[in-house]
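ok, trying the design again with the full structure, not the truncated one.
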């Protein structure tokens, strides 16, 4: 994810759960097309949580869901084709999910 905005949802003695703010977050991508151009796009609807372990940040977790139909490459015909069964098949698979169980490269207030 290139941009992600979080708001605090819940806190326990050892963990904090952050809710991804869908109004301020998006997922972007770039794909080489026919080796002569790069198609850039984004998914405009993303939700999920990031849970941090206050005693060991590397033990954090992330759970993200991306609305596959929210793809936007600024070309309506291409977007329709990407939503079709040829690619994402959004009717059968409406969400792209990502779950991670660690956070790496902790540097002060920066995480990967």
């Amino acid at each position: 994810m290139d941009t992600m905005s979080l708001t605090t949802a819940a806190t326990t003695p050892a963990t904090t759960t952050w809710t991804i703010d869908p109004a301020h977050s998006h997922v972007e991508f770039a794909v080489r097309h026919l080796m002569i151009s790069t198609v850039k796009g984004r998914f405009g609807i993303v939700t999920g949580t990031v849970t941090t372990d206050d005693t060991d940040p590397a033990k954090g977790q992330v759970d993200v869901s991306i609305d596959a139909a929210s793809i936007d490459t600024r070309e309506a015909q291409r977007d329709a084709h990407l939503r079709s069964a040829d690619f994402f098949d959004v009717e059968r698979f409406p969400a792209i999910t990502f779950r991670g169980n660690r956070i790496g490269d902790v540097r002060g207030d920066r995480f990967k």
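Keeping the full-length input from now on. The longest strand covers residues 46-53.
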